[in-house]
Amino acid sequence: MEKRKRHNYKNLKIWQIGIEIVDDVYTIIEGFPKGERFGLISQISRCSVSIPSNVAEGSSRTDKSFSHFLDISLGSSFELETQLIIAYKRNYINKEQLTKIEVKIQEFQKMTMGFQNKL
Asked: 9-118 sits in which CATH class?
């Protein structure tokens, strides 16, 4: 039987970066057109929240299960990056905003994959 090793998600750098991403996203979407409330705003906010949420949820599971939750979190980060590119193409955000958050998302992705390989 696999021994359960619990991770304190609040101490995990990947969770902390995930929270920063959510905060940045909510600042960014404040400037979106109101007509996007049920479109991109909804999608972007949900997938950004999914990033740290899945890290937190998975942290209470076995390492194998935690790895699965990290996969979901990574998927949400790639989805978020795509949606932000769409927002840039629609002129809802500028290049500087896109670049700044992309750097943070890519840092999250790299760190999460590294952490996952050590589980």
From this structure: mainly alpha
